[in-house]
Amino acid sequence: MSIQVQDLSKQYGVQYALDQVSFTVEKGQIVGLLGPNGAGKTTTMKIISGYMSTFGGEAHVNGMDVRSDPIELKKQIGYLPEHNPLYLDMYIREYLTFIARIYRLEAVNSKVDHIIERTGLTREQHKKIGSLSKGYRQRVGLAQAMIHDPSVLILDEPTSGLDPNQLVEIRQLIRDIATEKTIIFSSHIMQEVQALCERVLILNQGQLVADERTEVLERVLHKQRKIVVELTQSFEGNWSIEGIQEVLSLGHHRYGLVFGKTNIDPRLAIFDFVTRQGHKLLELREEKSSIEDVFQKLTT
Questions:
Q1: Which residue, 204, 219, 234, sits at the end of a domain?
Q2: Which residue in 161, 218, 236, 272 has the most C-beta neighbors within 10 A?
């Protein structure tokens, strides 16, 4: 087990940033950490990575108490904070060499060569960091977090502010990394979490309100099914179909039919019902739930 958190609490005055939060992350997992602003995501990451030592409860990384030996802990962890702190006047290779020497790595030049190639910085390695786009600065941040080959990566908003092309590049890079690391990944971009993470932790007001695999979270928390129907003309009667709970008018002869638990497929029942009423279907599709829907339900 890579990460184990038990009854984690952090208080600022009378306000709890974290309140009795517990979870574990297995080796090789990529886990999304979600929550609105002020939910406790960054506090959790700072505690796990050893940058915050005053808190209640326990946190272990690779069996090591995060308060027992902070120097040894940082050898196990790569941390990319939300505001990527880089020395803008340094060249990429110069900066990564500097970081490698801080970690007292052996064979510094070969380690720097490897991480530059791994993070796609080969063509840019002789540029100053200050001249790079945000996408490449994020790559440099990932490179400094990975250069000492940690087993755990903590990435706080690694895709924040990137354009669509940069998002694709960083997403693929994180996927590649995930084959051999344990990753906690924080983001406000729900599509990124859905695309990258196999499991999701959702914090709200300092409390853990969900901990589940991505596909299970979508399926279990949305017990209702919504079917969108478009007819050739308006339907004014009652939708007498088993399991129907609500009918939403979507305009232009379109309706959202919300179903609870039913023993039949709502789509077949809708087709049969509409046909019996003498109407014709132009559209019949199920509206899929998403991580964003679940997030809004749990945090508002």
A1: 219
A2: 218
